[in-house]
Amino acid sequence: MTAYTTADIRNLALVGHAGAGKTTLSEALLHRAGVLGHAGRVEQKDTTSDYTDEEHEHGHSLFASVLHADLDGTHLNLLDTPGAPDFLGQALGVFPAVETVAVVVNANHGIEPMTRRMMKRAADRKLCRMIVINKIDQAFTGGSVDLGDLLTNLRQTFGNRVLPVNLPAEQGTKIVDCFKNTDGESDLGPVSQWHSQIVDQVVEVDENLMELYLEQGEVKPDQLHAPFEKALREGHLVPVVFTAAAVEHDASQSVGIDELVKFIKELCPNPCEGNPRPFVRGSGDELDLDPDHEIHADHDPAHHVLAHVFNVRMDPFKGKLACFRVHQGTVNKDTQLFIDDAHEGESKKPFKVGHLFKLQGAKSEEVDAALPGDIVAVAKVDDVHFDAVLHDSHDEDNVHLRPLRMPAPMAGVAVEPRKRGDEQKIADALVKLQEEDPTFRVSRNNTTHETVIQGLGDLHLRVLLEKLQKRYNVEVETHPPKIEYRETILANAEGHHRHKKQTGGAGQFGEVYLRVEPRERGEGFEFSDDTFGGSIPKPLIPAIEKGVRQALAQGPIAGCPLQDVKVSVYDGKHHPVDSKEIAFVTAGKRAFLDAVSKAKPVLLEPMVDVEVVAPASYMGDLTADLSTRRGRVSGTDMMPGDMFALHASVPLAELTNYNSQLNAMTGGAGSYSMEFSHYEPAPRNVQDKVAAEYQPAAEED
Ligand SMILES: Nc1nc2c(ncn2[C@@H]2O[C@H](COP(=O)(O)OP(=O)(O)OP(=O)(O)O)[C@@H](O)[C@H]2O)c(=O)[nH]1
Ligand SMILES: [Mg+2]
């Protein structure tokens, strides 16, 4: 591997809608750098980046891939990411490792849902952004694509900061520079016209240069480098380049790759030129998120090590591979690193690096050291997890990256082993899948006794279940997770039970009178002893409460937990010999159920607050659809880029298949998030349906 310094490094993430050509572009760059003899094709399942079985099967990237190449002395760390919305977590996960995010746009389709989302998320994270308009070959093969219109649309949607640094020419077969070059014609008109626009934009961030420019009408290209980086950092400029990563009729041909390499080498920021990564102190809920208290790494190779783990994958040969970006200091084989997990207080005990790897898709190559700005990986360190911070001194204890706002997994299925005895195997495999995927969640629901896996969508879950089967050789049955209904009462009532058992052996006797009252939603359970005069000996009162709590677990309507009930025991009878705990547990339980049955018991259903974000053109349909799901729309907000957010309160049970429905209704342009809000009484028909499915277990006497 050619020696390089931090200033030679370029860290670039390829993001954008599915099918835009990111993987093909990464292949063309590796081919151009001489890493590959020929550029692979996604259709032929021989690309460097899409190397997993699942990706071959689905024909799309599903996981982030780490690649690298030497571009004539410039060291490019290239991160190819999936464009499918269900794999947004994989794409966002690489943001902390790069200075620049290249949003790849399919010239055929123009601005697509993930184009918008990634442009916004990269801006939120203060990353430098560029746009690659790919598949330009299709604009000149009689397609309906007009690159001029597309550029106008990009500028209208993302602002006038969007400006080309190069342009297609001669029917898209050539690319001409319009940043350093002022002459000639392009397919989008005279180069000079675009040149002055971008120079105008760049000099705006530098007053002195602006003055010089206004005086002389022109500035030298090398005077433009620093303001160009500044304009990128400040989001004042989003440069556009044009490419055809693999020309339609001759995939070995590409257009604009040399020019893209030139752009990466000359104008993409190196690690010291990008915006600093936002490190913060604290842990768990006690992170100090005050922007003034942010800690910025200094890229000094001699300083303490500060590095961040942005991707974890289970390699069939090397085991767990944790990819990290070095932000400060130098890491080599002998370095001892502490691990700080964002969710845990204490730094874990240090580990010795031992072996350091550069990744190239599925392959990995051992290297001696990693400088600030570089991206490498360690293998087989169990304690290293996604988003962990690695450091070599206690000065950096409790330093974490400002949390990445990851999308919450909305789609869920309950899983159970197809074969008895596979429970542990499944649990272990699910832990490994979670390690690799920050948007995959596994939870055990102790009320419905189900293991529920959640992901960002149906495709996400399907792919993870395929992985479970193929990689970990476990078969599972899946079904929609049970909705966690609850029960409560709407009226006051009294209950009574006399428990008497005097058939052979020790007798049992206990008699309880109690009252139940409804409490405010969410107030929970309250038990009180209002007996007097020793009707029930005080030591036996807890037994009554125990019986009541047993009954609380299984309500009379559908066996769901009862909540928001006050129970007051006000009278009873006991027997000096036969009144034992068991007798009053039973009497308490039965008296409570007797009272509840008379207190207008109802089924409570979980309500969630939903926020649906989609292009404004879908507002009517989406509002109507939510109303058919018994949703109550509480408001809408218009958002930039002709998007809107719809807020509603909806019964969870009505959203089981919402993810795929929303995708269908909005062509994948819509997304939603939901959060549990509260329980409220279910309508009669829902209650009857749930009650009908309930088979109460036989009562033991
Ligand atoms: N005509 C033409 N086809 C291209 C070009 N670039 C990519 N393709 C084709 O477009 C399809 C999608 O390309 P990918 O590289 O898989 O796209 P991607 O952005 O990685 O897609 P995801 O992995 O799903 O996010 C493939 O069939 C490519 O061969 C191009 O410049 N011109
Ligand atoms: Mg891809």
Description:
This protein has 701 residues and is of the alpha+beta class. It has five domains: 6-191 and 236-267, P-loop containing nucleotide triphosphate hydrolases (Rossmann fold); 279-401, Elongation Factor Tu (Ef-tu), domain 3 (Beta Barrel); 411-482, Alpha-Beta Plaits; 487-599, 2-Layer Sandwich (Ribosomal Protein S5, domain 2); 605-688, Alpha-Beta Plaits. It is 26% helix and 31% strand. It is built from 16 helices and 36 strands. A seven-stranded mixed β-sheet has the order 2-3-1-4-5-11-6, with helices on both faces. A six-stranded antiparallel β-sheet has the order 17-16-22-13-14-21. Helix 6 (191-203) packs across helix 8, helix 10 packs across helix 11 (458-472) and helix 12 packs across helix 13 (581-597). The longest helix is centred in the last third of the chain and has 17 residues, at 581-597. The radius of gyration is 31 Å and the shape is elongated. It starts with 8 loop residues before the first strand and ends in an 8-residue tail after the last helix. The model has no long low-confidence stretch (mean pLDDT 91). Bound molecules: guanosine-5'-triphosphate (GTP) and magnesium ion. Magnesium ion binds next to helix 1.
